[in-house]
Amino acid sequence: MSVAGINVLVEETRAIQAGAKPPLLAVRDVSTYYGSVAALRGVDIDVADGEIVTLIGANGAGKSTLMMTIFGSPQARTGTITYDGRDITRLPTHAIARLGIAQSPEGRRVFPRMSVFENLQMGASLHGERHFQEDLEKVCTLFPRVKERLHQRAGTMSGGEQQMLAIARALMSRPRLLLLDEPSLGLAPLVVKGIFDAIKELNRTDGMTIFLVEQNAYHALKLAHRGYVLVNGRVTMSGTGRALLDDPNVKAAYLEGGHTGPVGA
User: Fold this and answer.
1) Predicted structure pTM score
2) What integer is the mean pLDDT of 162-182?
3) Separation CA 141–CA 137 (nearest Å)
4) Where do the structural domains in the chain lie, given as residue ranges?
5) CATH architecture, domain 3-100+175-255
């Protein structure tokens, strides 16, 4: 990408953030390691209250590692992560969850031997019974298939239904920030559309802040207010979803047959 093109993206991002209050989530110069291998290298990302922000990149770029690092496992070796003005870099996962962050992890990871209803109860465990019925009705309205399967074992559901359940379970904790890791992975196009429509509805009607990690760059950038490109553990580009969607290098790498090279590196 040309220097001029990079400057345009930077200015667009600054324009969105100008005059705004501090971001709800701020990742600053974060590096994460697995043993001696660096998975993230000096990552900087902001997510403002009420935004949908997406992170795109190829397999092995470090997207899921960043999501897990934000949620406390593994923890960043260097840098800081702040949420709502509080440093959460060294907090354990359960303490982060209590602050109002929920994660729907890659691969869904529902409790297969438990019923759908019991999975949702697990998601609601932070708040007990206080809002359970209200929140159950809400997620069942968002995902009617979850309602239809309430008394079925989660392990007998289809992949798309399990993804809906994973998101619904996360929502039962009443999060202010929802972390979604590859929600479209391995799903049929029609199911993917339904998942992304639900994400859009959560943001539009509830004002929920969403940080979305996705390989499906087209759907993710079309949905997101802003986006970042991660290559080999480094953020190489950022900008509005539309600007990244229209960028020729992003198109070549992620929208026209797969990853062809390090974008913006």
Assistant:
1) 0.85
2) 94
3) 6
4) 3-100+175-255, 114-168
5) 3-Layer(aba) Sandwich (3.40)
